[in-house]
Specification:
It is a single chain. By secondary structure, this protein is of the alpha+beta class. It is built from seven helices and eleven strands. The strands form two sheets. A nine-stranded mixed sheet has the order 2-9-5-4-3-1-7-8-6. A two-stranded antiparallel sheet has the order 10-11. The longest helix is centred in the C-terminal third of the chain and has 20 residues. It binds a DNA duplex (14 and 14 nucleotides) through helix 6.
Length: 319
Amino acid sequence: MPELPEVETIRLGLQKYLVGHTIEEIEVRLPKMVSGEIKFVHGARVKGVRRFGKGLVIDLANDYSIAVHIKMTGQLIYKSSKVPKGTKVSEKVGGELPNKFTHVIFHLSHPELAAQKGRAYLVSGSQSKKEMPKRVRHDNNRGDAVLYYNDIRQFGWIKIVKSEKLKEISFFKELGPELFPSAGQPALAVDQFKTILSKAKGPIKPLLMDQKKIGGVGNIYANDALFVARIHPKRKANSLSEKESERLFEALKKVLAKGLEAGGASEWQYVNALGEAGKYQEFFQVYGKQGMKCPRCGEVIKKIVMAGRGTFFCSGCQR
DNA sequence: GACAATGTTACAGT
DNA sequence: CACTGTAACATTGT
């Protein structure tokens, strides 16, 4: 996925739908996906959802947090009666959930639902089932809401830690500044960006994707930003002029903002927290467009491999 | 069958 | 020690 715009789109969905729910039970179907102090999620209320680069943090009211990284093929999908009727779940979800790629299931309930559970038992003897309020129909310890974690390639992870210890997770500890922080961190500034470039000896494209240097940028947006800024992906980072660095900084902001506006890129498995596809793939500048004509100069877009990743650019106007 | 796919990380080498 | 490149993780789709 999932780069900054995709993960942020998921975060916005979880912030809207998940907050207020209590996690009644965490069902771990593939143990290697989940580590840490699992028992502390049981009975805890979701307080908020933050994002750090491509990582998500679900904060619980008991001062524990669920850190999630969905890597390439993870999906976090929320289901409940609160989901709007017209919601169109993408075929990328793979039909009914859970499916064979569902590795973790969070069973959720609302605090008020839990409070009414006793009453549900009382009325069940004297009233018919259809007269019972739908939301208190359940007589087990589970609510009517669920959060699924699906992951075809099983690269992702879920770590449960005391909130104050999140920084001890190396991914978060080493994460560089980002252009659109979600949790009050300072945004990457243009001067800071220039300093990062000037200190780097290698090519610019892998640098943009280095999470330790700059948070949240991955292969799709790195390719597109370099195209927008008219900079060749193989250029040495420290060889960019002031003007070029500024252009690249603005281009990164532009493509990431466009990705956010489009609800992310669903070229592959990515869907939002309700299972809906994003639209940024309709706005790809060069990503995946090898052999097609450059929209700016008409030259044919090339594909090469840099640091093991597909790299797309126009040799006509990227210098 | 070969290869590539939104990402990170461990490890070997310079 | 710092940096760089490659393989690995596991699965699907072309």
